[in-house]
Design goal:
Strand order of the largest sheet: 2-1-5-4-3
Number of strands: 17
Number of domains: 5
Largest sheet: 5 strands, antiparallel
CATH topology of the largest domain: Heat Shock Protein 90
Distance between the termini: 156 Å
Structural class: alpha+beta
CATH superfamily of the largest domain: Histidine kinase-like ATPase, C-terminal domain
Helix content: 40-55%
Length: 519
């Protein structure tokens, strides 16, 4: 009985043992598979870790000692793997202080990971690297570690800094241009054209007549006068290649309305938004040119005045003799027919003498002195000077002078220069149009101004020319018949007297020039 029980017990135990063996075999199989999977995972991790193009490291959380680094880390920082393992970033001088590490640990406590923390790291040679550091907490053999990844953003930071400095410099230059009244442009080349506007200040828009949007679709070449264009393009290309050239020169710009304006340009090689550029400062020098031309004309007038003065003095002597002897003869008892001839001789000699006196008045040098002036008398003296030419050219002059016109404070000689210019122009265009003409001169008071108008019956002024009449060098006369400076000088003189001069077409026919001066 006992033997049977013992046998049954042995069978049960054997069965249990077999079950345990099977369980152990399953467990061992699972362990082997897990180890195999772990090995595969470790191989994959190792491959991913060591082949990653970003510098990566594994360091202990507690001390920050290197357990492993990848090839990119070695190449980036210049240390061998053997030099790094067991050491810390502070030991190696990669991090200058422990603050970055403390920041990482603080963030890990809060979020269990760090992403794109900006840090400054240093290579073995001392070269600074601006980097973004990311870190994740991992366990290696139950030891808490950090897996770190570094992204080198040094070049990006340099580009950002260069862009920031460029923009700051650019803003400073714009402010400087605005303070000095200069237009500012930035020009860059593209695949289609050279000298394209990438920036144009408001002042440049005022000078050219184009809006900023229009300018940004235009090349500077489009605005330069054909006579200056070739040389300007050559300078631009040389400067864009880094060649140092004199920066200041003058060119003529064609405005949107077709008019020309002289400008002074200062260029310098620069950069704009990270690309090579020509930085230009442009000043409208129309007024300066006008003053220069006025000076030239003044010098010419002075020379002509000296010549006229000499001629007038030479004429005075024989005229004095003619007048004197004709008057002596008229006192004698002579035939009536001869007397009438002598009267004509005397009268014409007197008229010629008056012309000579007027010529001497114009030729005489005067300081610019403003005194009370009767406008009627000032205009009449000019008409006396032009009487012979007007008679020869069949010009009739009609004067509507307001009597008792208040005197104005002015330089009479400079005003007469204005009037003679207007009158000569009117004579020229009337004769050109129909070989004769009528010039109507009217003076009157209108409120607080004294007004003189000169109305001719010539061809009038083309509408497109009206706004350019007082520009230096603008003329509608034939080549050689005018310099285009007369009306420009007139404008300067009248403005100097606090007045204004303008022109308009008459409804019936012809043109009218109006001079208004303070009463």
């Amino acid at each position: 009985m006992k033997e049977e029980k013992s046998k049954k017990q042995l069978l049960v135990e054997l069965k249990e043992l077999r079950q345990r063996i099977v369980a152990l075999e399953v467990q061992e199989s699972r362990r082997r598979r897990a180890e195999e999977a772990l090995k595969i995972s470790e191989v994959k991790f190792s491959k991913a870790f060591h082949s990653n193009p970003h510098p990566m490291s594994i360091v202990t959380v507690e001390e920050g000692r290197y357990l492993d680094v990848n090839d990119s880390y070695v190449q980036t920082f210049g240390f061998s793997r053997e030099e790094l393992l067991g050491r810390t970033t502070v030991d190696m001088g990669i991090v200058k202080s422990g603050r970055a590490r403390e920041e990482i640990l603080l963030r890990l406590k809060k979020a269990h990971k760090v992403k794109n923390l900006e840090v400054e790291l240093y290579t073995k040679s001392g070269y600074k690297i601006d980097a973004l550091l990311s870190a994740d907490r991992i366990e290696i053999g139950e030891q808490p570690c950090l897996l770190t990844v570094i992204t080198d953003v040094t070049e990006r930071k340099k580009a950002e800094e260069a862009l920031r400095e460029s923009e700051e410099r650019y803003r400073a230059l714009l402010e400087l241009g605005e303070r000095t009244g200069e237009a500012v442009v930035m020009l860059q080349d593209n695949e289609r054209r050279v000298g394209m506007h990438v920036y144009a200040s408001d002042e440049w828009s005022k000078i050219t007549g184009y809006s900023s949007d229009e300018l940004l679709n235009m090349s500077m070449v489009d605005l330069i006068h054909p006579g200056d264009r070739k040389e300007a393009v050559k300078r631009h290309k040389k400067r864009m290649c880094g060649e140092v050239l004199p920066g200041l020169y003058e060119i003529t710009i064609i405005r949107k309305d077709g008019s020309e304006v002289p400008v002074e340009v200062t260029y310098a090689y620069s950069s704009y938004k990270g690309k090579p550029a020509n930085e230009g400062y442009i000043r409208d020098i129309s007024e300066r040119k006008k003053m220069e031309e006025q000076l030239i004309v003044s010098d010419r007038l002075a020379s002509i005045g000296e010549l006229a003065s000499g001629v007038a003095h030479e004429l005075n002597n024989p005229l004095t003799g003619i007048i004197g002897f004709s008057e002596l003869l008229l006192k004698k008892n002579i035939p009536e027919e001869a007397r009438e001839d002598l009267k004509i001789i005397n009268r014409e000699a007197q008229r010629t003498a008056q012309v000579v006196r007027n010529l001497l008045t114009f030729a005489r040098k005067h300081d610019t002195t403003k005194r009370p002036v009767n406008l009627n008398k000032a205009i009449q003296s000019v008409l006396d000077l032009r009487a012979y030419e007007q008679k020869v050219n069949n010009i009739e002059v009609v004067t509507n002078f307001t009597p008792d016109l208040p005197e104005i404070t002015a330089d009479v000689f400079r005003l007469q220069q204005v009037f003679i210019n207007i009158i000569i122009n009117a004579e020229y265009f009337m004769v050109q149009a129909h070989g004769r003409g009528t010039l109507t001169i009217t003076t009157e008071r209108r409120g607080d101004v004294i007004r003189a108008s000169f109305a001719d019956d010539g061809p009038g002024i083309k509408k497109k020319h009206l706004k350019h009449l007082f520009n230096p060098f603008f003329t509608t006369k034939e080549v050689g018949k005018g310099t285009g400076l007369g009306l420009s000088i007139c404008h300067g003189i009248v403005t100097e007297h606090g007045g204004r001069i303008y022109a308009e077409n008459r409804p019936e026919k012809g043109a009218m020039f109006i001079v208004e001066l303070p009463a």
